[in-house]
Request: fold
Amino acid sequence: MNIRSSAPLTAADARALAARTQAAGGCVVFTNGVFDLLHPGHVRYLTEARALGDLLIVGINADASVRRLHKGPDRPINPEHERAEVVAALACVDAVVIFGEDTPHQTVSTIQPDVLVKGADWAADAIIGRDVVKARGGRVERIALAPGYSTTALLERLRGGRP
Reply:
């Protein structure tokens, strides 16, 4: 659809963007995550997600949400607006939304994407927002994670856990 936003959108603004895309016959894809230290695994995942539709909206966990997810006492490394800026700069990403809840269910409910994407490490029946997308005739896709890439492993390496 060639509509890009470099600043995070509110969920309501993301819904308006999604609605315009859908009205024009386009397919809206949504995924979410922390995206703390961006690595090639993230880029590959987001590129694959974008290939599933015409518009990719990425939900970014707010800092407080990351802390509640027990990612570690020092996480996130980068604040939410910086993480959003970096993800939004990727050519495959059309818009980002920062959400403060522990799950993206409310954000998915507001945006109403056609395709919901998560990594294949998630069980299909555990994907948050699946009910919303399926109820409107959409689909849920699981993407294989690129082996050898994780933020946790990267942090361990930076802390001297591996040369």
